[in-house]
Specification:
Blueprint: H1 9-30, H2 39-47, H3 50-54, E1 55-56, E2 59-60, H4 62-75, H5 77-96, H6 99-111, E3 116-119, E4 135-139, E5 142-153, E6 160-168, E7 171-178, E8 184-188, E9 197-208, E10 212-213, H7 219-255, E11 257-258, E12 261-262, H8 267-296, H9 302-327, H10 337-344, H11 355-372
Parallel strand pairs: 3-6
Antiparallel strand pairs: 1-2, 4-5, 5-9, 6-7, 7-10, 8-9, 11-12
The structure holds flavin-adenine dinucleotide.
Flavin-adenine dinucleotide binds at residues 118-121, 126-127, 151-153, 191, 195, 197, 347, 350-352, 354, 356, 360.
Length: 373
């Protein structure tokens, strides 16, 4: 029994809606091509009202995003990822874009007719994003972008990219770049999970200055604010997957017999499941606490976001691993739901800052707060 007593009725309803929609979208997700954007799936998320639900007049609600991601992840990881990537790719446009850029793209992203992506990582700048080399040179009223991005979710199929580029030795600028901009090319990559992802090449791509997001040279702050919003929701995605794994393990342990009794009667099994349930609920509360703090606008939530992402993703990995152990060989058959979750659960411990980077952030904030006292 999961306790959502701390949520409002409207929040519990949103979670239930996401779970119901996820169940309906399983066949649409299954019809997609691994590694590529599944446009019918994105359109279906919009038709069910979930994409539009992600955007409010003030931007993106962190708590709603977390509830949508947890609910979708529990029953359909592909639908979860399709929704999350629309948000990740467009959140900086919503919050930092000029009104005409917002008007040109956000209604289409919310309607599922335009695909969005967030392009930060480069071949030689992953965890150390400040080492990026993709260059944006000023040319009159335009910028000209040259360089490469890699491991960009939704690339190269996206219609609009939030792109971070170097505009000075210590300066990064964020841009909204249409996918059909001349000189922008790319190719898809195939990962362990069916996640849509690829590489982008910018060969002297012209971007008008009014497509800068936020202030020129202040792009690192645009990236960090976007990650403060999205990191708790990566934790929510993970909690949804972990819950799915626990549900499967509990059902299996109740019916599978060994040595003449159900597995659940072995304490070596049941106590592992108790541990998973406890850690998942702790992760859920950490996620909801970080999201609520972000939505309150009370101040920087970087440390809370890092804790939620770190604990959520590490807990989900543990949950899936325990669930597979409890199932034995059956869970390793390729089309078993746990084999799918095992593939899906790995990447969130790496993207949007690996677990080690989250610990760096938490520690940095600890010492900064101590120094201020
Ligand atoms: C499925 C998936 C989707 C992604 N989607 C996007 C996207 O949409 N947009 C985007 O811009 N990027 C995306 N990425 C890229 C992702 O953000 C990077 O992979 C991530 O930031 C890590 O960079 P890296 O892979 O280059 O690892 P590296 O930076 O090479 O680091 C490798 C490992 O070294 C360790 N490490 C690094 N630095 C430290 C440190 N300071 N202390 C301790 N240990 C450290 C960590 O264990 C880390 O995992 C995605 C990646 C994946 C797998």
């Amino acid at each position: 029994m999961i306790t959502y007593a701390h949520l409002t009725e409207a929040q519990r309803e949103l979670l239930r809606t996401a779970e119901n929609v996820a169940n309906q979208l399983i066949p649409v997700a299954a019809a997609g091509t691994p590694g590529r954007v599944n446009r019918p799936l994105v359109a279906a998320l919009a038709e069910h009202g979930l994409l539009g639900r992600m955007f409010t007049a003030d931007g993106v609600s962190a708590m709603d995003l977390c509830l949508l991601r947890e609910g979708l992840a529990r029953y359909c990881t592909e639908a979860e990822t399709a929704l999350a990537l629309q948000g990740l790719g467009s959140a900086a446009i919503v919050r930092f874009g000029r009104p005409d850029v917002v008007a040109a793209w956000i209604p289409k992203v919310a309607a599922g007719t335009a695909i969005a992506a967030f392009a930060l990582t480069e071949p030689d700048a992953g965890s150390d994003v400040a080492a990026m080399t993709l260059a944006a040179e000023r040319d009159g009223d335009d910028y000209r972008l040259t360089g490469e991005k890699i491991y960009i979710s939704n690339a190269p199929d996206a219609d609009i990219y939030t792109v971070f580029a170097r505009t000075g030795p210590r300066a990064i600028t964020a841009f909204a770049v249409p996918g059909d901009a001349p000189g922008l090319t790319g190719e898809s990559l195939t990962l362990l999970a069916p996640h849509p992802i690829g590489r982008l090449r910018f060969d002297d791509v012209t971007v008008p200055a009014n497509q800068v997001l936020g202030e020129p040279d202040r792009g690192m702050s645009v990236a960090m604010r976007t990650l403060d919003l999205f990191r708790p929701s990566v934790g929510a995605f993970a909690v949804g997957m972990g819950q799915a794994a626990l549900d499967l393990a509990v059902a299996h342990a109740a019916q599978r017999e060994a040595f003449g009794r159900p597995l659940k009667q072995f304490q070596g099994v049941s106590h592992q499941l108790a541990e998973v349930a406890m850690r998942l609920q702790a992760a859920r509360l950490l996620v909801h606490s970080a999201a609520t703090a972000y939505d309150s606008g009370a101040g920087p939530t970087t440390q809370a976001a890092a804790m939620a992402k770190l604990f959520g993703t590490e807990t989900a990995q543990f949950a899936v691993d325990v669930a597979i152990q409890v199932h034995g060989a059956a869970a390793l058959v390729d089309d078993h739901p746990l084999a799918h979750l095992y593939r899906e659960v790995r990447a969130p411990r790496i993207y949007e800052g690996a677990s080690e980077i989250q610990r760096e952030i938490i520690a940095r904030e600890l010492f900064r707060a101590a120094a201020e006292h």
